Write the structure tokens for this entry.
Amino acid sequence: MRNLTPQTITQAFADYAKNAPSARTRTLLVGLADHLHRFVRENRVTPAEWDAAIGALTRATAFTDDKRNEYILFSDLLGVSSLIDMVNAAKSGTPSSVLGPFHIEGAPELANGGDLWRGQVGEPLVVSGRVTDEAGTPAKGCVLALWQNAGNGLYAQQDKDQSPTNYHARLTVAPDGTFAFSTVRPVSYTVPDDGPAGDMLRALGRDAWRPAHLHMIIQAPGRAPLITEFFPDDDTYLDRDAVFGVRANLVLPFRRMSDRAALPAILAARDTLPMPVWSANLQLTLPNA
């Protein structure tokens, strides 16, 4: 197309893509170009500003490896990862949340009532609950994929002093849908901010903190996995989570318990668990299929 103008270039892009093999791909990329073109027009983006943006993406490559992906971090910090989760989330059941970068496949099996803490740094936490469908029927055959950071704030992938699967596990719930395990109380931590994504945070006057949380994927036969995370209600950073992962119904009371007899029976018998402990109860509801 000849004689392009700022007002006609977007339609030219769409016209050039008229023979795209995939209609969905064409819709996404033409829509993306439309938003980008409008952004440039509305803000009169300068060559220097656009060059700085391209430079940040180029520098992201140097910070990306098998343990860290700076492009995913940009997606998280811009709220895109969380927005994609929300627009695709089920309309009922326990809310979903972002996956995060530290889930691993093939985590060790943990018996119902098992221990992930094993006397490590940090305060012990007892997690118990039940998984049902929306009619209250126990989720038989349900498996919980569990992961979190250690008491020092680091995930196993970030800390050479931890075993590669520390605080990662798969737990099969009981036939009545109940589960219980002991772990460490998770702590708030900062996402990596030494790269271009961190530069973006500082340019916006934001910080890099995430509130403490427990990650979980709830996997039940015949249902799509539910990816979510749970937050203690006393965390300082609930209302400024760097990756926008907090949902109101995922914020729970973490309470101190001094009476061993009040623990779930499967844990009360374990005399190696020091008292008092923190306790959290999760009543999980699988959304309609």
User: Anything to note?
Assistant: The longest strand covers residues 124-132.
